[in-house]
Amino acid sequence: MPNDMSNTPKPSIFKRRESDARSYCRGFDTTFVKATGSEMTDANGDTYIDFLAGCSSLNYGHNDPDMKAALVEHITRDGMTHGLDMHTDAKGDFLRAFEQHILKPRGMDHKVMFTGPTGANAVEAAMKMARKATGRTNIISFTNGFHGVTMGALSATGNGYHRGGAGLPVGGHVTRMPFDGYMGEGCDTSKFLEAMLGDASSGMDAPAAILFETVQGEGGLNAASAEWVKKVCDLAHEHGALVIVDDVQAGCGRTGTFFSFEEMGITPDIITMAKSLSGYGLPMALTLVRPQHDVFGPAEHNGTFRGNNHAFVTAQVAIEKFWSDSAFQDSLATKALVLTTGLQELADKIDGAYLKGRGLMQGVDVGSGALAGEICARAFQKGLVIETSGPNDEVVKVLAPLTTPEETFRKGLSILLDAADEVLEQHKIAAE
Amino acid sequence: MPNDMSNTPKPSIFKRRESDARSYCRGFDTTFVKATGSEMTDANGDTYIDFLAGCSSLNYGHNDPDMKAALVEHITRDGMTHGLDMHTDAKGDFLRAFEQHILKPRGMDHKVMFTGPTGANAVEAAMKMARKATGRTNIISFTNGFHGVTMGALSATGNGYHRGGAGLPVGGHVTRMPFDGYMGEGCDTSKFLEAMLGDASSGMDAPAAILFETVQGEGGLNAASAEWVKKVCDLAHEHGALVIVDDVQAGCGRTGTFFSFEEMGITPDIITMAKSLSGYGLPMALTLVRPQHDVFGPAEHNGTFRGNNHAFVTAQVAIEKFWSDSAFQDSLATKALVLTTGLQELADKIDGAYLKGRGLMQGVDVGSGALAGEICARAFQKGLVIETSGPNDEVVKVLAPLTTPEETFRKGLSILLDAADEVLEQHKIAAE
Amino acid sequence: MPNDMSNTPKPSIFKRRESDARSYCRGFDTTFVKATGSEMTDANGDTYIDFLAGCSSLNYGHNDPDMKAALVEHITRDGMTHGLDMHTDAKGDFLRAFEQHILKPRGMDHKVMFTGPTGANAVEAAMKMARKATGRTNIISFTNGFHGVTMGALSATGNGYHRGGAGLPVGGHVTRMPFDGYMGEGCDTSKFLEAMLGDASSGMDAPAAILFETVQGEGGLNAASAEWVKKVCDLAHEHGALVIVDDVQAGCGRTGTFFSFEEMGITPDIITMAKSLSGYGLPMALTLVRPQHDVFGPAEHNGTFRGNNHAFVTAQVAIEKFWSDSAFQDSLATKALVLTTGLQELADKIDGAYLKGRGLMQGVDVGSGALAGEICARAFQKGLVIETSGPNDEVVKVLAPLTTPEETFRKGLSILLDAADEVLEQHKIAAE
Amino acid sequence: MPNDMSNTPKPSIFKRRESDARSYCRGFDTTFVKATGSEMTDANGDTYIDFLAGCSSLNYGHNDPDMKAALVEHITRDGMTHGLDMHTDAKGDFLRAFEQHILKPRGMDHKVMFTGPTGANAVEAAMKMARKATGRTNIISFTNGFHGVTMGALSATGNGYHRGGAGLPVGGHVTRMPFDGYMGEGCDTSKFLEAMLGDASSGMDAPAAILFETVQGEGGLNAASAEWVKKVCDLAHEHGALVIVDDVQAGCGRTGTFFSFEEMGITPDIITMAKSLSGYGLPMALTLVRPQHDVFGPAEHNGTFRGNNHAFVTAQVAIEKFWSDSAFQDSLATKALVLTTGLQELADKIDGAYLKGRGLMQGVDVGSGALAGEICARAFQKGLVIETSGPNDEVVKVLAPLTTPEETFRKGLSILLDAADEVLEQHKIAAE
Predict the structure, then answer these.
(1) Residues C336 and C309 in one domain
(2) Cβ of C388 under 8 Å from any chain A Cβ?
(3) Cross-chain CB nearest to B77 (options A34, A43, A248)
(4) Are D186 and C322 in contact (CB under 8 A)?
(5) In this structure, are C363 and C307 located in the same domain?
(6) Where are the alpha helices (H) located in C272-393, listed in sequence order?
(7) Can you give the pLDDT at residue B6?
(8) Is the residue at A4 inside a domain?
(9) For C214, phi and psi rounded to 5 degrees?
(10) Transmembrane residues, as ranges (chains A, B, C, D) (predicted)?
(11) Which helix (H) or strand (E) holds D288?
């Protein structure tokens, strides 16, 4: 922690010069200066437990020591930093590790497309590729889906606030279907999809692809069942459409396995990855695609930062450290249980509240965005970084680093429960 | 340089697992392992002079020692790596440096929007912002413009190969106008723009913005005159449209000044920056916007990697090192002269060839993509990394690091001239 | 009937010179030369009972004698034929009759917009007007809806064959919802609409309008229940959207009342009318709009043939003759019963067949387009003009003139039943 | 003329019940009750010379006696009125006449597609057909072009007022190019088109078709030169695009020949016709298409009123009466001369005014919409129906029936000149 505070920023620079589009800094109104593992430290020397993890970009925690060592070594020896999409040793090493520890063990023959280093770009590439590969233009996406805010990705994103930012109608070439559970229990929404696809006059044009998250992170931790996902994939293939799984937020172990769909008996044609892929929080994204759909010509979809070699270096370490045997994955099941237990305790405090999500991507729908917001704000005051999600921000969402030590994890949950208690107590007093 | 080659990648991994969309690696078919300044070294220990500079992403050369030192220090002390868009010391320090050395001296009141760390994302944000700010949807862009390949940016991009990759018609909400010089000498294309804007039945809807590069990098080094740029900006403002200058490739000193438009007497409403912004080749992008058009609400345009703190650290060094006084800028004028002289020599060798571009963003139109390609390929064999541009790849383009020592610069030009000689000689022999 | 056949066309002219887009003439392969009431006569002197009625454009039969007399009188006295949208006596007289006998008794304050004389044009005007009036772009339409094939109307039309004709993706600015009954019994599809409208992240942008037919004519005689229609209209108004009822095919008495929605307790904001409006089969269309949404400026939506005075003359007669008292409407209920009885007899002959539709817009879903087509073809051989509808042409549809005398009506039904018997007998023989 | 005024409309019905979209009735504020040839009579018994001719829909004048006789005979004998697109004797007779007198003598192998009976619908069909036939989506249209206001046609229409009526951005899938003369003398706008088409990075996607009027009626009587038209057609075919000539307003003799392009040495792939096609002002439209591009399947583009048999009857008479020999066409040249002379006299009265147009589609650009409007309003007071056109309504446009007797023609021109004199005199007085 820095003792000399003279170098820490005066807060006014952000208000003075940063666009009003800034957001997280509003809820977490301090200046962070360092971080390790599951803890962040601000310029005042206060530390916070991180239950946000860069929106699932820091699944292995902040500044993992092994990745850090490899990265410093790479920089020190003047290893390639920026390589456009040229071959570099770091890229080759990453690809080999990814092939050996991720693709091969899962029987996946996918090619790896390095896109611009954002999830949105991976989604843009996926959507374009599916359209080019099938010669169709329509892409089916789902209620409450989030896929990014560039124009292509935004057309598939459900959130009205984000859509409104475009300043023009963004609906073109995308058909919106209800996600699993959208119509409540007893209504299998895949039947509506099936009816539309099977009806030549439904008004739904033959789809190039069906695009979905298995757990909708921004949409409110809606977790699709394996049955529904399987059914949707079968429908896609039956009707000549590709399956695109957007694993940007749910991938890299977040749900308990490397890919979020591993235990669902499907093989997506295209998979998008970003966020925790580099392991260290460095910008990196991939679009995985089965060889028969790898239809872009050289540079047809291009971009300057597709060769972020620093990210390749840390990503290689992340894969080898966490995914070369089953130890890490095994630990996730245990932690998920701890999380479920803690969140159930939270839910029990609040009338009508209930758990949502899957694996280490769970939260509690507390019924209103106002209440969820108050709880998170109070938790921050008490040293916990945590956020809401859902269409009305009504879900208190836990996205802790997957590497969070159990003690820290329990401590974070405890802060969260205390914060909830305090907020609920205040409400009681106010109501009296 | 690594002596132990056992760690260098087997080339086959790229063919085996990387998407066919890969491109630069095809022309520069080796594996790079380290780089400093204007030189890159491959796994065989061969070194190359870099006249590509990551497509203008490495204006300060590879792995600048001062940035490197600051970056290693930051990493070593567990400084923030990934910060979403939270306040961090590194971000504050960057903003202060940017304000002090870039914005203030140029009298610019622009706000700084950190977008996803790619030029395309900065352009997407700019286009959305202009539409939201004006309540209009049409954006005017120009023949041969390149702004990225995500759907919003792609609609403004001229290149048919890239447009084709979308798998659907991309023309919506953009009107295409002829760039300066497009119709040859004696035809002022701004007059067509003026006529269309002034005619209620022209079929051009009232524009939200006019979007252009002052020098079209990918489009073939077409440099707009100051008069034309001024006229276009005046027309925009007269008709209630914003001016967006896409300075992703031409900015950061490439044309001889920090912004490419500094000597044109204009103040763009919105400016996009990326590529060399971080100084070190790390992913980072900005959209600068005048306060009155800073209309996005919190997170309305969002993204995971808007807080790449490593990039902030190096970007701060880049600005303080190169732009806190006029020394660096003064040196660019000298180098541009060297470049012009060298390229003129090249042009003189080839019938009909002529110089294009401005500052350190110049090249030679050699009349055909085939010839330009052969010259670049031969140059690579001789140790020079250099690329073509233009609608038919007919321009041999020099984008050397701005920091290239004069001796290296001359050496690179000399390789280029030799390569051209050899290719032309072969053509003569073949013709006989 | 003409005795002199020398003037009847050689069939070859149609094949020689008419576009392959021609259609009905393929199924009814003869040349018609005269028609009165519910009977058509061809060049061979053969007469046919008409159970198609110009797709509900001839609700009052062919060449009604009173309209005919008024029209001949108008023509003979050199009454205005083409009047752009100028005031003419014929237009004034029509408007007065329409006000007195249609609008006033139903408590409707709607303004009358004369659009280009086709249903598609009335729909185009309605969609534009709703968008302009609300400042929103999205329009909700339904599975199996048919609204025309010009680009605006086509975007709301469900039929994939028609959509395919556009040669470009037509889905923009329209969200498709399931019509009443689309998901089978026990599933109230309005609940899905309600959920989407009430969810800020559903991906459905706030709608300008909800557009539907109360009975989907081309879509297969799907009749919405009054409860569903009422619910949809309430949702529209609750969410700031206009209600557009497309009454082009179901209006003018076809369902038993002048407007198809009269007994549903709703007041649509916009209503489109065409087909039987002129009464005589002459091209004429209207868009009715409540005054507060009548937002087009002079000629903002224009067209050359908005003043078809011949049509005004016959339309006035149609309204005064059939709608100035309740006699005609009363007769429709009786005829609908005859129709239901006859069609039930047909349905009983075929496994799984069932009745669809409402009023004098009923048919039988016989389970396959092939069978329905065979029955209609056989009926034509036996002197009955009748067509199929539905996504797979699986519905035998009766659209007889509403004025068909009961005897003729029964005769037509009898031909239909005989045709079905013959076809089914053949199938039995073939199966043995 | 009716003596009994009790049946003439009270003006209030129009204000009370007609949509505010009504337009011509505002400038010509009376109620017309009959018309013959070039004269219209209102309810007050006042007669007007018609120099508007239903916007070129009444090229043969009002209620031509031969067409009238044929129509009354057809109606009286219960000839088919509404025939969907079935074969009828009237349709066959029309087709034969059209083949014999129009297509064959001009060496045209085009197929005849009967579209919905409006020019907009013919244009919609043409655009869809070109897209389907070529598999491309982009259509090139021109500044100041007018093609209708349904969404497909509107996208090709230049007029901003009409475009605004859509309530959503209409620019998709159309590229706008400058019409002949748009950039003034000395600038051949076809060169811009040529450059864009020949440049793979121009941002203009490969066009399905180039769509234009040879004389832009609504756009201000801009007449393209034969050279320009020929060049544009050659470019289209060179680049795999179809040529669509929109002859809705300029066709049927208006420019001096049946088609407006007959003397230009081109054969359009697709031609749209409407307005004067039926001869009598009855709604009728056609899309002519060369057989190889006749790609619609049965009913793929459909519509209820494609079989307006009354229009077929009068259209047949029109063709046989006026186009079976050269007499009528010869008379047009003479009348055009009279028109030019008269309009030159008008132009000479006004500083800077000049003639525009071609054949019997000429007018005078008087420099301002206000002045043009005043002249037309004054002319109406003096018994002449005449309108303005152009982006700012600055052109006084003469569209007299082609059959106008020379005496009536001169009388109309004389009223126009007097009206201009009176208006100019008033302006002089006001200026003093």
Answers:
(1) no
(2) no
(3) A34
(4) no
(5) no
(6) 309-323, 327-349, 369-381
(7) 52
(8) no
(9) -75, -30
(10) none
(11) strand D286-289
Contact D166 C128 (CB under 8 A): yes
C201/A138 CB distance under 8 A: no
What the block records as the tokens of C333 is: 């209920």
Cβ B351 vs Cβ B399: under 8 Å:
no
Q: How far is B412 from B424, CA to CA, in rounded Å?
A: 18
How many CA within 13 A on the CB side of residue B52? 24
User: Does residue A80 sit at the B interface (CB-CB below 8 Å)?
Assistant: yes
C-contacting residues in D 314-353 (Cβ below 8 Å): none
Strand partners, B426: none
Q: Report CB contact under 8 Å: A187, C187.
A: yes
Q: What is the CATH number of the domain that holds A23?
A: 3.90.1150.10
Do C246 and C298 belong together in one domain? yes
From B19, B22, B30, residue closest to A289, measured CB to CB: B19
Helix/strand/coil (H/E/C) assignment for every residue in D319-350: HHHHHCCCHHHHHHHHHHHHHHHHHHHHHHHC
Final residue of a domain: which of D322, D337, D364? D322
B158/D219 CB distance under 8 A: no
- Tell me the pairing of strands D174-177 and D138-142: parallel
Residues C267 and A308: their CA atoms lie apart, in Å, by 61
What mean pLDDT do residues D199-219 have? 97
What residue of C is the nearest CA neighbor of A176?
A: C203
DSSP state of C7: G
pLDDT at D7: 55
| Chain B contact probe: residue of A8, A13, A81 with most B CBs at under 10 A | A81
Q: Which chains have 3+ CB pairs within 8 A of C?
A: A, B, D
Q: Note down the domain range covering C56.
A: 13-63+327-431
- CB–CB of D199 and B161 under 8 A? no
The residue among A273, A293, A322 that closes a domain is: A322
D231: distance to nearest CA of chain B, Å?
17
Q: What are the pLDDT digits (tens) for B220-230?
A: 999 999 999 99
CB D96 within 8 A of CB C35: no
How many interface pairs between A and C have CB atoms less than 8 angstroms apart? 129
Predicted confidence at residue A1, as pLDDT, reads 35
DSSP E strands, A57-180:
111-114, 138-142, 174-177
pTM for this model (two decimals): 0.96
pLDDT above 60 for C130 = yes
Interval C212-229: pLDDT, tens: 999 999 999 999 999 999
Of B24, B34, B125, the CB nearest to A84: B24
Strand (E) or helix (H) holding B431: helix B406-431
ipTM of predicted complex: 0.96
Residue C56 belongs to what H/E stretch? helix C53-56
Interface of B with A in 93-122 (CB under 8 A): 93, 95-96, 98-99, 103, 111-114, 116-121
Q: Which of B17, B82, B86 sits opposite A57 (nearest CB)?
A: B82
Per-residue pLDDT tens digits for D212-229: 999 999 999 999 999 999
Q: Is the alpha carbon torsion for D117, C82, C126, C110 positive or negative?
A: negative
Residue A16 half-sphere exposure toward CB, CA atoms < 13 A: 15
- Phi, psi angles (nearest 5°) of residue C173: 70, 15
Is the pLDDT at C6 greater than 60, yes or no?
A: no
Substitution target in D137, D139, D201 with the highest count of B β-carbons within 10 Å is D201
Amino acid, res. A133: A
What letter represents residue C387's amino acid?
Answer: E
Give the per-residue pLDDT at C185.
85
Domain count along chain C: 2
Q: Which of D178, D202, D392 sits opposite B144 (nearest CB)?
A: D202
Query: Whose CA is closest to C71, among C248, C281, C273, C303?
Result: C281
**B142 close contact with D: CB closer than 8 A:** yes
- What are residue A289's DSSP bridge partners? A111, A270
D2 pLDDT higher than 80: no
